[in-house]
Amino acid sequence: MNGLELPAEFLERIRDLESGRVQPPVLKHAATVLLLRDRADGLEVFMLRRVSSMAFAPGAYVFPGGGVDARDAEYHQPVTDFTSWGEVFGADEGTARALVCAAVRETFEEAHVLLAGPSPDKIVEDTAPYEADRLALLDRSHSLAGFLDANGLVLRADLLRPWGHWITPIIEKRRYDTRFFVAALPEGQRALDVSTEADRVAWVRPAEGLERVTRGEWFMLPPTIAMLKSLTAYGSVAEVLAAEHRFAVHQPDAKIIDGVPYLVLPDEASHQYEA
């Protein structure tokens, strides 16, 4: 079994959930982007370390991303086939629209990288002129659709690829139904340390990131580990974007085994956990 032993405090929660005395929290849709670039020594991915004061996963290294905002589904320019995205995600067209738009918005908010351009075949090369708009997105005084329309920009969903789907286990008090995307860092743009939810950022080779987890230098949640492991099979951004990647849904399960609570993980997330 691939599993992570949980603190004893989870025993009662697992029993309450199994008996129906407690209901799991409602899932919230979320989108996360693995932002990629090529370097001489191989593929690198952009990561952030969440500040220690965060309620969810404090101190964890993660990819840019976050929960879907209700207004993410307001974007209606007809250059993106959101129905096809929904078929990949196993979601309706409206949910797929919100997820793709959330992926673009969160990447801009947390890394200053904007997957949009003045036309369907162009992309913004310098995001500095849009800093005030980024801050307005952060404080929710501006919607993504409003920002793009006001600046004559088109969302470039074609630069994203679906990469993973993870659902937070029912034992957690905050639960997310998260779709992971991959995207290349656009030419001319730079990923910056601008997230208010992070205290450190790094470009890292996937194998190196996993090594840091093994050495206890970095902390990551199982889905992040799984996503890094999936990237180790590729040598370049082009290979990742061209891959026929298997898009499967994963949800770790909580079980009590011989009186000990465990989080049972799929093989993809078993990098450092044994039971």
From TrEMBL:
Its cofactor is Mg(2+); Mn(2+). This is Nudix hydrolase domain-containing protein. InterPro entries: NUDIX_hydrolase-like_dom_sf (IPR015797), NUDIX_hydrolase_dom (IPR000086), NUDT19 (IPR039121). One of its GO terms (molecular function) is hydrolase activity, acting on acid anhydrides, in phosphorus-containing anhydrides. Gene3D superfamilies: Nucleoside Triphosphate Pyrophosphohydrolase. The keyword Transport does not apply. Coiled coil: none annotated. The keyword Manganese applies. PROSITE patterns: NUDIX. Residues 27-226 form the Nudix hydrolase domain. Keywords: Hydrolase, Magnesium, Manganese, Metal-binding. The lineage of its organism: Bacteria, Bacillati, Actinomycetota, Actinomycetes, Streptosporangiales.
